[in-house]
Design goal:
The structure is a single chain. The protein has two domains: about 170 residues, Helix Hairpins (Orthogonal Bundle); about 70 residues, no CATH class. The model has no long low-confidence stretch (mean pLDDT about 95). Strand 1 and strand 2 form a beta hairpin. The protein contains five helices and three strands; from the N terminus they run αααββαβα. The chain is mainly alpha-helical. The radius of gyration is 40 Å and the shape is rod-shaped. Helix 1 runs antiparallel to helix 2. The structure holds zinc ion. The site of zinc ion has 9 residues, from loops.
């Protein structure tokens, strides 16, 4: 067997490893977009949550203000009653009401102020989310074109590699081509070829029979590792002629 075919296979594996690098590059180019989209989703969800919170706070505020209004009205009424009281019993009754209503009114005032603070904080958070979402939309619009160009450039490189691989495969006898393609189906980007190193398969470390070692060293035939089924190649080839 002409050892140039084995050298072709090594070259194909090297070229395909470059393909792997370009595929990873494409992923990382696209990751620029997906990471922003992911944050957009998170922030949109958060905005929904904050908007609901704001609605709850606003309705609580309305209730508190209505309650305060009623208590203040009662205080006013008690004070007026105090002014027009004609006996001790009426005076006592109005004073008793005021003793209950006055602290109630001041507690409600505190609650109202606290609710205003909560509403303000919530509105600020929503405004911050809106600023982020606007920025993210602008960034996406800018980088989408950039990413598309980067991806296209990687795809062109991949296409070129595929053509070179195809040409090298076509230059091999059919049995060698099939053996490689079968191994590549199982081990693509995980080194479909194996070398015999100190009598073992350098990928799975299986001890290779002396007879097979001899066949491989002399390039008499294309042998597969009995364990991992990768085509076996003599290490001497890589030392002298592999790129
Ligand atoms: Zn093996």
């Amino acid at each position: 067997m002409n050892k140039k075919y084995l050298i072709n296979l090594i070259e194909i594996q090297n070229l395909d490893n470059q393909t792997c690098v370009h595929l990873k590059n494409i992923d990382s180019h696209r990751e620029r977009i997906t990471s922003i989209e992911q944050k957009q989703i998170e922030q949109t969800d958060l905005k929904q949550l904050k908007t609901k919170q704001l609605q709850t706070f606003n309705s609580s505020l309305s209730k508190l203000e209505a309650e305060l209004f009623m208590v203040e009205k009662q205080i006013k009424k008690s004070k007026a009653n105090l002014e027009v009281a004609t006996n001790q019993q009426q005076l006592d009754a109005s004073n008793k009401e005021l003793q209950v209503m006055t602290p109630k009114a001041s507690a409600l005032e505190t609650d109202v102020l606290e609710m205003y603070d909560k509403i303000e904080l919530c509105q600020d958070e929503i405004a911050q989310i809106d600023t982020f979402l606007d920025g993210a939309a602008t960034t996406l619009a800018t980088i989408t074109f950039e990413v598309e160009q980067d991806v296209k450039a990687e795809q062109l490189e991949i296409k070129e590699l595929e053509q070179r691989i195809e040409a090298l495969l076509e230059g091999c006898p059919k049995d060698i081509k099939i053996a490689f393609l079968q191994a590549n189906e199982q081990y693509r980007f995980k080194n479909p070829l194996a070398f015999i190193n100190e009598g073992t398969c350098n990928r799975c470390h299986y001890l290779i029979d002396k007879n097979i070692q001899n066949q491989v060293e002399k390039h008499f035939s294309l042998e597969l590792c009995p364990n991992c089924a990768r085509p076996l190649i003599a290490l001497s080839i890589t030392r002298t002629e592999a790129p």
